Amino acid sequence: MRNYYNIAAILSTLILSGLLLNTGCNEDINNTSPTTTLQTTQFDGAQGSCISGGVKFEVLVDGVVDNAQTQYFCNVAQGQGGQNGTNTTMRTTKFTGALGRCTSGGVKIEVLVNGTIDDAQTQYICNVAQGQSGQSETNITIQAIDFDVALGRCTGGGVKIEVLINGVIQSNQTQYICNDAVNTFTIGDIIRFGAYEQDDNTSNGKEAITWQILDQKSDGQILIISEKVLDVKPYHTTPSYMTWEKSTIRSWLNGYLPSFNSAGTSFTNDNFIHTAFTADEKAKIVTSDVPAHATDPIFGPSPGDATYDKIFLLSVVEARQYFTSNEEREAMATHYAVNWGVFSNIIDGSTTHRCGMKDFQENKCSAKWWLRSPGSQADHAASVNYDGGINRDGDDISRKSIGVRPALWIKYD
Fold this sequence. Notes:
Layout: E1 19-21, E2 36-43, E3 54-61, E4 64-65, E5 71-74, E6 88-95, E7 106-113, E8 116-117, E9 123-126, E10 138-147, E11 158-165, E12 168-169, E13 175-178, E14 190-196, E15 207-216, E16 222-226, E17 231-232, H1 248-254, H2 272-276, H3 279-284, E18 285-286, E19 288-290, E20 307-309, H4 316-322, H5 326-329, H6 335-339, E21 344-348, E22 351-354, E23 365-367, E24 369-374, E25 380-384, E26 390-396, E27 403-404, E28 407-410
Antiparallel strand pairs: 1-10, 2-3, 3-4, 3-5, 6-7, 7-8, 7-9, 10-11, 11-12, 11-13, 14-15, 15-16, 16-28, 17-27, 18-28, 19-20, 21-22, 21-23, 24-25, 25-26
Protein backbone atom coordinates (compact mmCIF):
# COMPACT_ATOMS: atom_id res chain seq x y z
CA MET A 1 0.00 0.00 0.00
CA ARG A 2 1.34 3.44 -0.95
CA ASN A 3 0.59 6.30 1.42
CA TYR A 4 0.56 9.85 0.05
CA TYR A 5 1.63 12.69 2.32
CA ASN A 6 -0.21 15.89 1.42
CA ILE A 7 -1.72 17.24 4.63
CA ALA A 8 -3.07 20.73 5.27
CA ALA A 9 -0.61 22.84 7.24
CA ILE A 10 -0.95 22.88 11.02
CA LEU A 11 -0.78 26.67 11.02
CA SER A 12 -3.23 28.26 8.63
CA THR A 13 -3.55 31.86 9.76
CA LEU A 14 -0.06 33.15 10.67
CA ILE A 15 0.89 35.89 8.23
CA LEU A 16 2.45 38.78 10.12
CA SER A 17 3.77 41.63 8.02
CA GLY A 18 5.12 45.09 8.74
CA LEU A 19 5.69 44.61 12.48
CA LEU A 20 7.94 47.47 13.62
CA LEU A 21 10.08 47.05 16.70
CA ASN A 22 12.01 49.99 18.21
CA THR A 23 14.97 48.49 20.08
CA GLY A 24 15.75 51.68 21.94
CA CYS A 25 19.48 51.33 21.25
CA ASN A 26 21.65 54.11 19.75
CA GLU A 27 18.57 56.23 19.03
CA ASP A 28 19.06 59.74 17.59
CA ILE A 29 17.63 62.12 20.24
CA ASN A 30 16.55 64.51 17.47
CA ASN A 31 14.50 61.81 15.74
CA THR A 32 10.83 62.84 15.89
CA SER A 33 9.52 59.62 14.31
CA PRO A 34 6.82 57.79 16.30
CA THR A 35 8.03 55.10 18.70
CA THR A 36 6.74 51.74 17.49
CA THR A 37 6.91 48.59 19.62
CA LEU A 38 5.66 45.02 19.41
CA GLN A 39 3.63 43.43 22.22
CA THR A 40 2.79 39.73 22.52
CA THR A 41 0.03 38.34 24.74
CA GLN A 42 -0.68 34.68 25.37
CA PHE A 43 -4.32 33.61 25.70
CA ASP A 44 -6.44 30.50 26.11
CA GLY A 45 -9.74 29.65 24.47
CA ALA A 46 -11.31 31.50 21.55
CA GLN A 47 -10.02 34.91 20.56
CA GLY A 48 -9.64 36.64 17.22
CA SER A 49 -9.25 33.97 14.53
CA CYS A 50 -8.19 31.30 17.04
CA ILE A 51 -10.43 28.71 18.68
CA SER A 52 -7.97 26.96 21.03
CA GLY A 53 -5.66 29.67 22.34
CA GLY A 54 -2.47 31.15 20.98
CA VAL A 55 -0.51 34.40 21.03
CA LYS A 56 -1.81 37.83 20.01
CA PHE A 57 0.67 40.18 18.33
CA GLU A 58 -0.08 43.90 18.73
CA VAL A 59 1.77 46.90 17.30
CA LEU A 60 1.86 49.98 19.52
CA VAL A 61 2.59 53.44 18.09
CA ASP A 62 3.61 55.87 20.83
CA GLY A 63 2.07 53.44 23.32
CA VAL A 64 -1.31 53.14 21.54
CA VAL A 65 -2.37 49.82 19.97
CA ASP A 66 -2.77 50.01 16.20
CA ASN A 67 -5.71 47.59 15.86
CA ALA A 68 -5.29 47.33 12.09
CA GLN A 69 -1.97 45.53 12.64
CA THR A 70 -3.14 43.07 15.31
CA GLN A 71 -2.56 39.45 14.30
CA TYR A 72 -3.08 36.06 15.95
CA PHE A 73 -0.73 33.08 16.13
CA CYS A 74 -3.15 30.21 16.79
CA ASN A 75 -2.71 26.92 18.55
CA VAL A 76 -4.02 23.98 16.52
CA ALA A 77 -7.54 22.77 17.27
CA GLN A 78 -7.76 19.24 18.65
CA GLY A 79 -7.86 16.49 16.04
CA GLN A 80 -6.82 18.62 13.07
CA GLY A 81 -3.23 17.44 12.80
CA GLY A 82 -1.40 14.16 12.50
CA GLN A 83 -1.97 10.88 10.76
CA ASN A 84 -2.75 7.28 11.58
CA GLY A 85 -4.98 8.15 14.52
CA THR A 86 -2.59 10.62 16.18
CA ASN A 87 -3.93 13.78 17.80
CA THR A 88 -1.51 16.64 17.16
CA THR A 89 -1.81 20.00 18.92
CA MET A 90 0.41 23.04 19.22
CA ARG A 91 1.07 25.07 22.37
CA THR A 92 2.49 28.59 22.36
CA THR A 93 4.09 30.21 25.41
CA LYS A 94 5.24 33.81 25.62
CA PHE A 95 8.46 34.43 27.57
CA THR A 96 10.80 37.28 28.48
CA GLY A 97 14.57 37.21 28.86
CA ALA A 98 16.82 34.50 27.47
CA LEU A 99 15.40 31.11 26.49
CA GLY A 100 16.36 28.69 23.76
CA ARG A 101 17.95 30.66 20.92
CA CYS A 102 16.43 33.95 22.06
CA THR A 103 18.11 36.61 24.21
CA SER A 104 15.31 39.17 24.60
CA GLY A 105 12.07 37.22 24.88
CA GLY A 106 9.78 35.73 22.28
CA VAL A 107 7.38 32.84 21.80
CA LYS A 108 8.08 29.15 22.51
CA ILE A 109 6.22 26.75 20.23
CA GLU A 110 5.68 23.15 21.34
CA VAL A 111 4.07 20.33 19.37
CA LEU A 112 2.17 17.69 21.35
CA VAL A 113 1.38 14.28 19.88
CA ASN A 114 -1.38 12.52 21.82
CA GLY A 115 -0.73 14.91 24.70
CA THR A 116 3.02 14.29 24.89
CA ILE A 117 5.49 17.04 23.94
CA ASP A 118 7.61 16.13 20.92
CA ASP A 119 10.84 17.83 22.07
CA ALA A 120 12.38 17.51 18.59
CA GLN A 121 9.76 19.94 17.27
CA THR A 122 10.08 22.65 19.95
CA GLN A 123 10.83 25.97 18.26
CA TYR A 124 11.49 29.57 19.32
CA ILE A 125 10.43 32.79 17.61
CA CYS A 126 12.53 35.63 19.05
CA ASN A 127 11.34 39.19 19.58
CA VAL A 128 14.68 40.51 18.31
CA ALA A 129 16.89 38.71 15.82
CA GLN A 130 20.33 37.97 17.21
CA GLY A 131 22.93 40.61 16.37
CA GLN A 132 20.41 43.31 15.41
CA SER A 133 20.17 45.23 18.70
CA GLY A 134 22.37 48.09 17.48
CA GLN A 135 19.72 49.65 15.25
CA SER A 136 17.57 52.54 16.39
CA GLU A 137 14.54 51.38 14.44
CA THR A 138 14.23 47.89 13.00
CA ASN A 139 11.48 46.62 10.72
CA ILE A 140 10.77 43.05 11.83
CA THR A 141 8.56 40.86 9.66
CA ILE A 142 7.47 37.33 10.52
CA GLN A 143 6.23 35.34 7.55
CA ALA A 144 4.81 31.83 7.44
CA ILE A 145 4.80 29.67 4.31
CA ASP A 146 2.60 26.58 4.09
CA PHE A 147 4.09 23.58 2.30
CA ASP A 148 2.91 20.02 1.68
CA VAL A 149 6.19 18.47 0.53
CA ALA A 150 9.28 17.21 2.33
CA LEU A 151 11.17 20.31 3.48
CA GLY A 152 13.52 21.15 6.31
CA ARG A 153 12.97 18.72 9.17
CA CYS A 154 9.46 17.84 7.98
CA THR A 155 8.55 14.78 5.93
CA GLY A 156 4.83 15.39 5.37
CA GLY A 157 4.43 19.13 5.03
CA GLY A 158 3.95 21.88 7.59
CA VAL A 159 4.79 25.57 7.95
CA LYS A 160 8.12 27.31 7.43
CA ILE A 161 8.47 30.38 9.65
CA GLU A 162 10.95 33.07 8.66
CA VAL A 163 12.01 36.25 10.44
CA LEU A 164 13.00 39.21 8.26
CA ILE A 165 14.96 42.23 9.52
CA ASN A 166 14.50 45.21 7.21
CA GLY A 167 13.45 42.80 4.47
CA VAL A 168 16.39 40.40 4.89
CA ILE A 169 15.67 36.82 5.96
CA GLN A 170 17.52 35.86 9.14
CA SER A 171 18.42 32.28 8.23
CA ASN A 172 19.46 31.40 11.79
CA GLN A 173 15.88 32.09 12.90
CA THR A 174 14.10 30.00 10.26
CA GLN A 175 11.95 27.34 11.92
CA TYR A 176 9.80 24.44 10.73
CA ILE A 177 6.57 23.26 12.33
CA CYS A 178 5.79 19.80 10.95
CA ASN A 179 2.42 18.22 10.24
CA ASP A 180 3.81 14.79 11.09
CA ALA A 181 6.35 13.45 13.53
CA VAL A 182 9.80 13.82 11.99
CA ASN A 183 11.24 10.96 9.92
CA THR A 184 8.19 8.68 9.90
CA PHE A 185 8.91 6.82 6.69
CA THR A 186 7.78 3.44 5.41
CA ILE A 187 9.33 1.64 2.46
CA GLY A 188 6.95 1.89 -0.46
CA ASP A 189 5.52 5.26 0.60
CA ILE A 190 5.36 8.11 -1.88
CA ILE A 191 6.74 11.53 -0.92
CA ARG A 192 7.08 14.83 -2.76
CA PHE A 193 10.51 16.40 -3.13
CA GLY A 194 11.67 18.92 -5.72
CA ALA A 195 9.89 19.94 -8.92
CA TYR A 196 10.33 19.24 -12.63
CA GLU A 197 8.43 19.98 -15.84
CA GLN A 198 5.99 17.12 -16.31
CA ASP A 199 2.85 18.26 -18.13
CA ASP A 200 4.91 19.94 -20.91
CA ASN A 201 3.17 23.23 -20.20
CA THR A 202 5.84 25.64 -19.00
CA SER A 203 3.33 28.46 -18.51
CA ASN A 204 2.04 26.86 -15.29
CA GLY A 205 5.46 26.18 -13.81
CA LYS A 206 7.12 22.94 -12.79
CA GLU A 207 5.20 20.15 -11.09
CA ALA A 208 6.16 18.54 -7.76
CA ILE A 209 8.13 15.30 -8.20
CA THR A 210 6.76 12.22 -6.47
CA TRP A 211 9.26 9.63 -5.26
CA GLN A 212 8.92 6.07 -4.04
CA ILE A 213 10.88 5.11 -0.93
CA LEU A 214 13.02 2.04 -1.65
CA ASP A 215 15.19 1.73 1.46
CA GLN A 216 16.07 3.46 4.72
CA LYS A 217 18.92 3.55 7.21
CA SER A 218 18.92 3.91 10.98
CA ASP A 219 20.43 7.40 10.75
CA GLY A 220 17.38 8.72 8.90
CA GLN A 221 18.63 8.40 5.33
CA ILE A 222 16.11 7.15 2.78
CA LEU A 223 16.67 5.92 -0.76
CA ILE A 224 14.12 7.24 -3.23
CA ILE A 225 13.46 6.83 -6.96
CA SER A 226 11.17 8.99 -9.08
CA GLU A 227 7.74 7.41 -9.30
CA LYS A 228 7.52 8.31 -12.98
CA VAL A 229 9.90 8.44 -15.91
CA LEU A 230 10.72 12.15 -15.82
CA ASP A 231 12.81 12.72 -18.93
CA VAL A 232 14.40 11.04 -21.93
CA LYS A 233 18.18 11.10 -22.50
CA PRO A 234 20.87 8.94 -24.16
CA TYR A 235 23.06 7.06 -21.70
CA HIS A 236 26.00 8.58 -23.57
CA THR A 237 25.90 11.02 -26.45
CA THR A 238 28.14 8.96 -28.76
CA PRO A 239 28.23 5.18 -29.43
CA SER A 240 31.38 3.78 -27.84
CA TYR A 241 32.61 1.58 -25.02
CA MET A 242 31.17 3.23 -21.94
CA THR A 243 30.73 2.79 -18.20
CA TRP A 244 28.57 4.70 -15.74
CA GLU A 245 31.62 6.56 -14.44
CA LYS A 246 32.33 8.33 -17.77
CA SER A 247 28.79 8.53 -19.16
CA THR A 248 27.10 11.80 -20.06
CA ILE A 249 23.92 10.77 -18.26
CA ARG A 250 25.80 10.70 -14.94
CA SER A 251 27.16 14.18 -15.66
CA TRP A 252 23.70 15.46 -16.66
CA LEU A 253 22.09 14.12 -13.52
CA ASN A 254 24.70 15.74 -11.25
CA GLY A 255 25.72 18.88 -13.16
CA TYR A 256 29.35 17.85 -13.60
CA LEU A 257 32.25 19.54 -15.39
CA PRO A 258 33.53 18.28 -18.81
CA SER A 259 36.28 16.21 -17.18
CA PHE A 260 33.72 13.86 -15.65
CA ASN A 261 32.56 12.35 -18.95
CA SER A 262 34.43 10.99 -21.97
CA ALA A 263 32.54 13.30 -24.35
CA GLY A 264 34.07 16.35 -22.64
CA THR A 265 30.66 18.02 -22.31
CA SER A 266 29.90 20.51 -19.53
CA PHE A 267 26.62 20.03 -17.67
CA THR A 268 27.08 22.79 -15.14
CA ASN A 269 24.17 24.77 -16.60
CA ASP A 270 21.92 22.19 -18.26
CA ASN A 271 21.38 19.41 -15.73
CA PHE A 272 18.83 17.64 -13.59
CA ILE A 273 19.94 18.43 -10.05
CA HIS A 274 19.90 22.23 -10.36
CA THR A 275 16.65 22.19 -12.34
CA ALA A 276 14.74 19.93 -9.95
CA PHE A 277 15.88 21.09 -6.50
CA THR A 278 16.23 24.29 -4.50
CA ALA A 279 19.33 25.05 -2.46
CA ASP A 280 17.59 23.81 0.70
CA GLU A 281 16.57 20.59 -1.02
CA LYS A 282 20.02 19.98 -2.47
CA ALA A 283 21.45 20.28 1.03
CA LYS A 284 19.35 17.24 2.01
CA ILE A 285 20.76 15.04 -0.76
CA VAL A 286 23.56 12.74 0.40
CA THR A 287 26.67 12.14 -1.68
CA SER A 288 26.57 8.35 -1.86
CA ASP A 289 28.88 5.48 -2.72
CA VAL A 290 27.54 4.13 -6.03
CA PRO A 291 28.85 0.56 -6.53
CA ALA A 292 29.96 -0.74 -9.92
CA HIS A 293 27.50 -3.59 -10.42
CA ALA A 294 28.04 -5.80 -13.47
CA THR A 295 25.07 -7.30 -15.29
CA ASP A 296 27.04 -10.48 -15.96
CA PRO A 297 30.10 -10.64 -13.63
CA ILE A 298 31.64 -13.57 -15.56
CA PHE A 299 31.05 -12.98 -19.26
CA GLY A 300 29.75 -9.42 -19.47
CA PRO A 301 31.62 -6.13 -19.97
CA SER A 302 33.32 -4.47 -17.00
CA PRO A 303 31.08 -2.03 -15.09
CA GLY A 304 34.04 0.29 -14.49
CA ASP A 305 34.81 1.88 -11.12
CA ALA A 306 32.50 2.84 -8.28
CA THR A 307 31.59 6.52 -8.05
CA TYR A 308 30.40 9.03 -5.46
CA ASP A 309 27.31 10.88 -6.61
CA LYS A 310 24.24 12.67 -5.32
CA ILE A 311 22.03 11.47 -8.18
CA PHE A 312 22.36 8.09 -9.88
CA LEU A 313 20.53 5.34 -11.75
CA LEU A 314 19.73 1.97 -10.23
CA SER A 315 21.85 -1.01 -11.26
CA VAL A 316 20.50 -4.37 -12.45
CA VAL A 317 21.25 -5.75 -8.99
CA GLU A 318 19.33 -2.94 -7.26
CA ALA A 319 16.40 -3.09 -9.70
CA ARG A 320 15.95 -6.72 -8.66
CA GLN A 321 16.58 -6.03 -4.99
CA TYR A 322 14.10 -3.20 -4.55
CA PHE A 323 11.42 -4.37 -6.99
CA THR A 324 10.38 -7.98 -6.63
CA SER A 325 8.28 -8.21 -9.81
CA ASN A 326 7.97 -6.75 -13.28
CA GLU A 327 4.76 -5.07 -12.22
CA GLU A 328 6.57 -3.18 -9.43
CA ARG A 329 9.32 -2.06 -11.84
CA GLU A 330 6.85 -0.79 -14.42
CA ALA A 331 6.86 3.02 -14.53
CA MET A 332 4.57 5.53 -16.21
CA ALA A 333 6.01 8.38 -18.28
CA THR A 334 5.14 12.01 -17.79
CA HIS A 335 3.51 13.95 -20.62
CA TYR A 336 6.77 15.86 -20.98
CA ALA A 337 8.82 12.67 -21.45
CA VAL A 338 6.36 11.29 -23.99
CA ASN A 339 6.35 14.49 -26.01
CA TRP A 340 10.15 14.45 -26.08
CA GLY A 341 10.25 10.94 -27.50
CA VAL A 342 10.49 8.37 -24.71
CA PHE A 343 9.61 4.85 -25.86
CA SER A 344 6.31 4.03 -24.15
CA ASN A 345 3.29 1.85 -24.66
CA ILE A 346 -0.30 1.78 -23.46
CA ILE A 347 -1.29 -1.66 -22.23
CA ASP A 348 -5.06 -2.09 -22.55
CA GLY A 349 -5.94 -5.61 -21.50
CA SER A 350 -4.35 -7.92 -24.07
CA THR A 351 -3.75 -5.05 -26.50
CA THR A 352 -0.55 -2.98 -26.56
CA HIS A 353 -0.08 0.12 -28.68
CA ARG A 354 2.41 2.96 -28.80
CA CYS A 355 1.84 5.98 -26.59
CA GLY A 356 2.62 9.20 -28.42
CA MET A 357 2.00 12.94 -28.35
CA LYS A 358 -1.51 12.64 -29.82
CA ASP A 359 -2.74 9.73 -27.74
CA PHE A 360 -1.09 10.41 -24.37
CA GLN A 361 -3.09 9.12 -21.43
CA GLU A 362 -2.17 10.14 -17.89
CA ASN A 363 -0.77 7.25 -15.82
CA LYS A 364 -1.20 4.79 -18.69
CA CYS A 365 1.93 5.31 -20.79
CA SER A 366 4.44 2.77 -19.50
CA ALA A 367 8.00 3.66 -20.55
CA LYS A 368 11.46 2.13 -20.84
CA TRP A 369 14.09 3.48 -18.43
CA TRP A 370 17.86 3.20 -18.10
CA LEU A 371 19.86 1.26 -15.52
CA ARG A 372 23.50 2.16 -14.90
CA SER A 373 24.85 -1.40 -15.41
CA PRO A 374 26.43 -2.34 -18.75
CA GLY A 375 24.52 -4.46 -21.25
CA SER A 376 25.78 -7.58 -22.99
CA GLN A 377 28.02 -5.45 -25.22
CA ALA A 378 30.45 -2.69 -24.28
CA ASP A 379 28.41 -0.04 -26.11
CA HIS A 380 25.10 -1.07 -24.50
CA ALA A 381 23.58 -0.27 -21.11
CA ALA A 382 20.94 -2.30 -19.30
CA SER A 383 17.39 -1.00 -19.09
CA VAL A 384 13.89 -1.79 -17.86
CA ASN A 385 11.27 -2.48 -20.52
CA TYR A 386 7.88 -0.80 -20.62
CA ASP A 387 6.36 -3.95 -19.03
CA GLY A 388 8.81 -3.87 -16.10
CA GLY A 389 11.06 -6.66 -17.32
CA ILE A 390 14.84 -6.16 -17.05
CA ASN A 391 16.63 -5.97 -20.39
CA ARG A 392 20.03 -7.50 -19.55
CA ASP A 393 21.27 -7.21 -23.15
CA GLY A 394 20.49 -3.51 -22.94
CA ASP A 395 20.18 -0.79 -25.53
CA ASP A 396 22.68 1.20 -27.57
CA ILE A 397 23.99 3.87 -25.20
CA SER A 398 23.38 6.63 -27.78
CA ARG A 399 19.70 5.74 -28.15
CA LYS A 400 17.59 8.84 -27.47
CA SER A 401 14.28 7.18 -26.61
CA ILE A 402 15.05 5.60 -23.21
CA GLY A 403 13.69 7.31 -20.13
CA VAL A 404 15.27 8.43 -16.87
CA ARG A 405 14.19 7.60 -13.31
CA PRO A 406 16.68 9.35 -11.02
CA ALA A 407 17.53 7.78 -7.65
CA LEU A 408 19.10 9.43 -4.60
CA TRP A 409 19.61 9.20 -0.86
CA ILE A 410 18.25 12.04 1.27
CA LYS A 411 18.50 12.77 4.96
CA TYR A 412 16.54 15.02 7.32
CA ASP A 413 18.09 16.59 10.41
